[in-house]
Specification:
364 residues; alpha+beta; Phosphorylase Kinase, domain 1; 5-stranded antiparallel β-sheet; 3-stranded antiparallel β-sheet; 11 helices; 10 strands; 41% helix
């Protein structure tokens, strides 16, 4: 097997881009065969091929858009249009983030297209991003035990800021998970990555018609059953709040909220979307889901450092509430305004991170 039967995105090694960047390394895959395993996630992304590029002594991450699936599609032109449209939409969102100076969101250094031949599939649209140290899924394991709590609390604070920045422009991320949060340098610099599955309220996008555009392994329970709310804020921003709360479960226990919730459901309680036999409504299933969620919160509380357990368990219970009508901070739900605001959680995570920093300094 070689990369010759694949699209141009797989053939960029050694190429010089018109802007001066040179493609110098593949990331996590063999340039001869195209084979690779779970690799460093530089920005997240779907239908993409990762590389390292260099210019003037600076290294960056290039995400080339893979058109291989279009080559083998019964309707090549339609598939090609769908992939390139998704790329263009992501590039648009990244431009908005850059213009709004969203410093907690990974933005592109450059976007463009390079060609390695004369055929359609030889073209490779691309995005170049600042090179990260990796995603928090891997990085958290390398942090010294005495520093780990403050490390991931700072991550939670900056993730919440990143989501709030996106929400300020009515952009819902929809795919927030550990592999889509990147750490930069040796400082506590965390940013939300991969807008490839995002929804932009008021602007047509490639995933608007999907019930949920992100990874179903992290989807809120109402999506799994499935329940469709026509309101953008409830359906999309409420989903992002759930995904943020799920990060607390991940950092404290190693697994997201949905993974643990699903593991507690009996086959008769699971919807058919996850190989269960339940065929009723989500409203009818909600008491059972809430019961398992309560048990899950108790286990989360026990897994957390006592110094932050009460605050974080409360935050997780509000952000991940299985009932979307009760998702978010209680004080924001009882007034006119944005009941999905993250400002209070930003303040909570910031306060807890600083408290953990102080305790660590006093201990050394």
């Amino acid at each position: 097997m070689t990369v010759e039967h694949l699209a141009g995105a797989w053939k960029l090694l050694g190429k010089q881009l018109s802007s001066g960047w040179k493609v110098v390394e593949t990331v996590g895959w063999d340039p001869c065969t195209g084979l690779g395993s779970d690799h460093y996630n530089g920005t997240g992304g779907h239908f993409s091929v990762p590389y390292i590029v260099e210019k003037d002594g600076r290294r960056a991450f290039l995400k080339a858009i893979d058109l291989t699936s279009a080559m083998h599609s019964p309707n090549m032109l339609m598939e090609l249009h769908q992939i390139t449209s998704a790329h263009s939409f992501e590039a648009l969102l990244l431009k908005i983030c850059e213009g709004e100076k969203m410093d907690r969101v990974v933005i592109a250094l450059e976007s463009g297209q390079v060609s390695v031949g004369v055929n359609l599939q030889d073209k490779a649209p691309y995005l170049i991003f600042e090179l990260a140290d990796g995603d928090v899924r891997r990085r958290v394991q390398r942090v010294n035990d005495s520093l780990r709590l403050s490390w991931w609390l700072h991550a939670m604070h900056q993730i919440a800021v990143g989501l709030q920045q996106l929400h300020s422009r009515r952009i819902a991320h929809q795919d927030l998970k550990p592999s889509n949060v990147l750490a930069f340098g040796n400082t506590r610099d965390f940013r939300v990555a991969d807008l490839g599955r995002a929804i932009y309220d008021g602007t047509a996008g490639p995933h608007d018609d999907l019930l949920f555009s992100g990874d179903f392994g992290y989807a809120p329970p109402e999506i799994l059953y499935p329940q469709l709310d026509p309101d953008f804020a409830t359906r999309r921003l409420g989903c992002d709040l759930y995904l943020l709360g799920s990060m607390i479960f991940f950092f404290a226990t190693g697994f997201g909220c949905t993974q643990q919730l699903v593991s507690r459901l009996a086959v008769s309680e699971r919807p058919q979307t996850i190989h269960g036999t339940w065929n009723g409504t989500y409203l009818a299933a909600l008491p059972v889901v809430q019961h398992h969620f309560t048990d899950l919160l108790s286990e989360l509380n026990g897994a957390l450092d006592p110094m932050v357990a009460e605050d974080l368990t409360k935050a997780a219970s509000e952000l991940c509430n299985p009932d979307p009508a009760f998702r978010g901070h209680p004080l924001d739900r009882v007034k006119a305004g944005n009941r999905f605001s993250l400002e209070r959680y930003i303040a909570i995570f910031d306060r807890l991170a600083k408290r953990a920093d102080l305790v660590h300094r006093m201990a050394v």
